[in-house]
Amino acid sequence: MEQQLRAWLRYSFAFGLYMSPNLKTTYINNRAAAHSKRLAWLERKPIVTKQRLKEICLYIQLVGICVVFVKGLVSLKPIPGMASEAVSTLLYALQALTCIIIVAEGLWRQQQQEAFLRLLHEIEFSLKLRLREDIKLHCWISCARWHLQYLLWLSLICFVVAVYYFMELQHMAYYWHAIWYNTIIRLRIIQLCVYVCVLRNYMACLCMKLQQLVAYRTAPNQQLLDVNYEKLQTLAYLLAIKDIYDLLYKAFELLCEFAGWSLFAIITSCILDYSCTLYWILLSFEGFMETSAYYVAGFWWLVPMTATIWHICYLCHKCSQLDRLLAARLRRLLIMSSSQSMRSYRILLQLFCTQLELQCIVVTGSNFFILDLRLVTAILATMTSQMVMLIQFLCA
């Protein structure tokens, strides 16, 4: 799975979403001969040069985002209503800041993202070797590819249709200057959706293995022929489950570390984008615009944003549910094992249950909010409050 992700991420470098980290080599040895040092330097030079070129490209992209932002402010055409101009400027500035955060994370959080990808590789092999789990890798690759293609094609089709209708409208504020910003933002949220989808599949596999262990304890007469139950109830097997869970928890921590601020900025800018788009639709219905066709373009603009935000919140919610399901099955296993298992096995179970009670697997926007289905409700409430304030300015 890691190799497939790297193949997909290779194309995201142009948008500042991913850059492979610096390769730390140890070619130079104090006791080596001068000839060996020259050979090592010649081997290392192309790698360093290529890495420097990537970093320069991302720095140029950061400067380009700032240049486009200033150009958009200077060339702004008059917008009907002071509230419309203020909200559009705020949204434009927030989108530019979000893109700066995304590119900065790709530049300065590359080590954490690389460690996250290596953890995915380690989790996959631990499931295969330590738990003997047939994780059906080809099915998971197809599932991740389907998620990626679905979100990409939906965003592309709706984006093209929205641009087609927006070309016929007169008052567009900063829309044309912010197209590049919106492209980076939506590709970033799709990238994070794929990451969370892979982690959810790994958690589902771990949960299924623990369910087999619980089923063996509750119904020992209903055993399957292709499952090695003697190994399933050993201390080493339970320790392998705990180690894989630790890797999963660390992977979620790394995800929040290298993508937390971009998640926070993306969700915030999407909330304001919702309110701004709906406000412009309301202005067109009330006759403040030359046409009422803003609702057509606004609809196609909001559909992919709604799909991606709901999708990542749903995937994060499923991960939290699987984490709670793991804790519930472990508690059930602890109750059934209290009288018949060996002492070390019970101690490990108790430690594992305590660990799950003290730490929860969640995806946060830099600890400002938790991504789950409750966040969708919070977004709707915030958007409604913003719309009420904008309507008050409209009626004043």
Folded structure, characterized:
- The protein is an all-alpha fold and 396 residues long.
- The chain has one domain.
- Helix content is 77%, strand content 0%.
- It contains 11 helices and no strands.
- It has helices at 2-9, 34-74, 82-108, 110-129, 137-166, 179-218, 229-232, 235-285, 294-336, 343-358, 373-395.
- α4 packs parallel to α6 (179-218) and α8 runs parallel beside α11 (373-395).
- It is elongated, with a radius of gyration of 26 Å.
Present the secondary structure layout.
Blueprint: H1 2-9, H2 34-74, H3 82-108, H4 110-129, H5 137-166, H6 179-218, H7 229-232, H8 235-285, H9 294-336, H10 343-358, H11 373-395
How far do the termini sit from each other?
A: 56 Å
- Count of alpha/pi helices: 11
Tell me the strand percentage band: under 5%
Q: What number of domains? A: 1
Order of helices and strands: HHHHHHHHHHH
What summary fits the major beta sheet?
none
Helix content: over 70%
* Low-pLDDT residue intervals, each spanning 5 or more residues: 23-35
Structural class by helix and strand composition: mainly alpha
How many strand elements?
0
Average of pLDDT: 80
Q: Looking at the structure, what is the overall shape?
A: elongated
